[in-house]
# Entry
Amino acid sequence: MRRLGDYADDAVRFASPYVKRTGEFFENAGDSAKDWYYTKKRAYMRKYHPTALEKLCDAISGSMRLIMIIVSIAGGIVAVLLAARAIANKFYFSKHRIIGYNETDEAPEEAQDASDEQTDAESDAEPEDDEAIKKEKGYIVL
# Structure
């Protein structure tokens, strides 16, 4: 038994470098496992907790159908309104343009005399033809 203590001391001295290397190996293995775990965790968090830009891109791509539906509805409404306007212009509204009254009727006497001289000169130039031309173009002469 007294030699057992010496053998134990020799065994400890012999095994201490191996135990130290084994401890370092397991410490490195633990660090490697921790790194692997955090790498996988970061990948998981990126996948299920995207950044603001990724969220925006996902929202735009996901709502593209909705945007297209809204645009098509708006386009359809505009087309219907344009068609209704064209039909109303064709059938219900007059194509004639109204020419206003002669403003010189209410002018002062001096301007009235000058305008009378102009109208006399214009009346000699066949005003009926002028009115006929205007009627042909679609004007209504009052």
